[in-house]
Design a protein that fits this description.
mainly alpha; 0% strand; rod-shaped
Length: 47
């Protein structure tokens, strides 16, 4: 009983770690796209 409880708890931890990594990746991707689009807009608006 104790081992199965520990295994399920570590499974939850691993799942939440994957979710945190995915969230960080998504935020970084949005940030990079925002910066690149901002530079593109500045380049196009410059004479």
């Amino acid at each position: 009983m104790r081992n199965s409880l520990h295994a399920s708890a570590s499974g939850i931890t691993n799942a939440s770690r994957g979710t945190a990594n995915a969230w960080h990746f998504y935020c970084a991707l949005v940030y990079v796209i925002t910066v690149l689009c901002g530079k593109l807009v500045v380049a196009l608006s410059a004479p």
